[in-house]
Amino acid sequence: MGGRIPRRSFVRGLALTAGLGAVGVGSAAAFPFGIDPLRPFVFRSPPLEPFRDPLPLLPTLGGTSVEVHASSTMHIFHSDLAASPALAYGGTDYLGPTIEARVGERTSLVYRNDIASNPLAADVDTRLHGVTEADRTDVPTALHLHGGSNPPEFDGHPEHTLRRGQGLVYEFPNQQDACSLWYHDHAMGVTRLNIFAGLAGLYLLRDEFDTGTAGNPLGLPAGEFEVPLILQDKTFTEDGRQSVRSNPLNPQGSWEAATPGDTGVVNGKVWPEMAVARGLYRLRMVNAASFSVWNLFFDNRMRFWVIGAEGGLFDVPVPVDHVRLGPGERADLLVDFGALGPGATVELRNDEAIPDQVAQRGIVPMPRFCRFRVGAAAGFTGPVPQTLRGGSRQPPLLAPVAQPRTVRNVSVLQIGQGLGQPSPLMSLNNLRYTTDDIEMPRQGAVEQWNIVNATPEPHPIHLHLVRFRVLGRQAVDTVAMMSASPLPAVGTRWTPSPDPFIRGPVQSPQPWESGFKDTVIADANSVTRVVVRFPTAGELGFDPDATFGMSAHPTQHSGGHTDGQASRPLQGYVWHCHMLDHEDHDMMLRYRLVP
Q1: Which of 8, 177, 520, 575 is an S-S bond match for 312, by CB 3.0 to 4.6 Å?
Q2: In this structure, what DSSP letter does residue 47 have?
Q3: Helix (H) or strand (E) holding 193
Q4: 548 near 569, Cβ under 8 Å?
Q5: Which residue ranges are recorded for the region named Disordered (predicted)?
């Protein structure tokens, strides 16, 4: 987001405020649709009663061959809202089924794009790279298994898109630790729209220790006591439609850099309630938001345990009273509802502050997600395990953090653009997605990536194919860094070392970052250091640098300029900000893993 409201927009806002001031606050119906007279720069959802609807339990698919076609649907998000146009996978009417797979057993995922209509057609912005008018009526899709170690042709590359009637059989080797993955759309320039409309689902990878069945060797809750939770925030119109617009100053069809919602949605329902037994539950949670980072806690501040992150289980459960998740991050939690009496309720809440440049429009934190109501029946009464790795019937302990031989500085930037172009440009390394100046780590290399965030808001950074360990974070005087090394024109790499501009001690990884991760929050004006080992083709069982398919997109830059390359062979993977608003424009770069 830009740090200032443009003067013309600010004057328009003052005029709107003045007009609203002539009408009493009690006359909200007289105001423009969805506008709160006390917050005229923000759209709002209609008032909705929390905890009216039960938490939906997502269906489960298993086996070595599954089908998850994408389709157009109608979905009711709340009992007081009408059915809303949506997208879904696998025959559901919103989101997709939870897929269960086993380590070492290949999964064939049969996918076809059966989307007949685009519920967010009016929000397509053709000024973004790779987006055309055709995307309004013929929705492009690319299914990505987030966190999966998959061949490049099955990774859901954003340029490897499928349109209505087209399909692909994705082959997932599942040669990695048991963990929580999720699958979602990744099509160029419209990822935020397709996921928001419903194209997302969880993918749980099991092994002989974490079987997902009762009596598993780790002593973890299973069956009805293991609950996948897909968390989102949304804004709704009065007729129940999903809206990706956050403010009236931005015309419909124009990309926005920040679209936090005012309503919590879990598994497709607004502020639902779940009846739970008195005992231990395993909650498999993913932040599937377009923009929002959340600091999650229970309103009674009770303790719970984090047992794993994106890359799998920790060595031991970690007791906490909150967990902070950025878009794309997952948390594997144990929660003991047996500590509460029958009839007690507890809410899953959020108090993450809104970044200042977004909060200046009047946006406030979305406060809650769901409520749990404790019944009288006994549930899973086993204890919280003392260890998860290293025992006789447990997977091996996590390996120590590898020693990097290469240090690579990368930067996260937001850059103002001229009139007629979507602004600001969200950029990695001061480059556009179309650049050929990409990272090319060697197979087998161990590298330290210093992710320097020179913006005033956090960005969750995701690397496809690989996992990494978080070393820590430090504050950076980015003003001094930019004064010493001025930012060149967009298209010229800008990745200075942050080390001369460090301001403060190293902050250790958070307790919920103890293991392997594939997505990490790079906080504002700071450097986040991670260590990643890039696997070899022999270890993977496939060539990660193989070419595949052809790009379905011309090489188009913001503002409508194209360089005439209508099609080219695809190669490699991508890394990007997982704020979906940002990845669509243009905070995503390709990378290759070379021999």
Answers
A1: 177
A2: P
A3: helix 191-197
A4: yes
A5: 239-261
